[in-house]
Amino acid sequence: MQKVRFEVDGATVVGTLRHPGTDGPVPIVVMAHGFALLAANGLEPFAQRFAELGLAVLTFDYRGFGPSGGELRQDVDPWRQLDDWRAAIRFARAVPGVDPAKVVLWGTSFSGGHVLELGSEDPNLAAVVSQVPHVSGRATVLAIPVVTAAKLTVLGVVDCLGGALGREPVYTKSIGRPGETAGMNQPGSYEGYTALIEPDSGWRNQMTARIALKLPFFSPNLHAARSTVPTFIGVAVDDRVTPAKPARKLAKRMGAELHEYPGGHFDVYRGEGFDRIVADEVAFLRAKLGLPATRS
């Protein structure tokens, strides 16, 4: 593994690159995390499985998060994050020993929506893997308790107005227990989310409040159906964060490969939930990338 860096609008994005070191160009999987999490928080088990297939793997952190640069810290801005993804794709295609025609995008939760959006605009991608994805701004907002959504909206307005006046950002928690003002506070979310946090990873339980005004308008399902890229969508049937129903509908419209898993939003990251979904993702990548069935 090696640390890598690339620039986006004058800020440095930091990532980790794994390369199998084999002869000949290899496919590459580009990965980033979901809502206000870092690559160090739960992506490693997935990246390791993909590396065991003989694939190169690039994980990265968005501007404003963890080791990456960027002036506005902890800003969960989907459109800015999409720009980071586009830069990561360009970087991945230029990595020596990588087949630029075999770039795979892997996203989860919020970034699961990002990769679906990107699949609709880049037909040269080899495949897209999207698990427990955010696909509808409306559906995700409706999954937030009403009182919490109202508080976040007020904070978001104050944050946006303050930003326009050059004031310091207004921050709130990205994850909280039920009743706390946070981006996610549905039952079970705090335990599932914080279980992903590695000690000394640099993660902060903080986000700019302005995301509350942006989230309703970020709906990858408005564009993703036009994608021609082979796509895997994995949903959790009891997901209280990014509901499964809109993702099912989108998968049908896209002709995507849909897989459903028991449990909630965070159950795909560990235990049997992880084993099930990663096995299906590996099988999907074997098929779409033409990998020998005997490689493991």
From TrEMBL:
Organism: Longimycelium tulufanense
Record bears the keyword DNA-binding: no
InterPro entries in UniProt: AB_hydrolase_fold (IPR029058), FrsA_esterase (IPR050261), Hydrolase_4 (IPR022742)
Entry similarity comment: Belongs to the AB hydrolase superfamily.
Descriptive protein name: Alpha/beta hydrolase
Annotated keywords: Hydrolase
Record Gene3D superfamilies: alpha/beta hydrolase (3.40.50.1820)
GO molecular function: carboxylic ester hydrolase activity
Domain Serine aminopeptidase S33: from-to ranges: 27-264
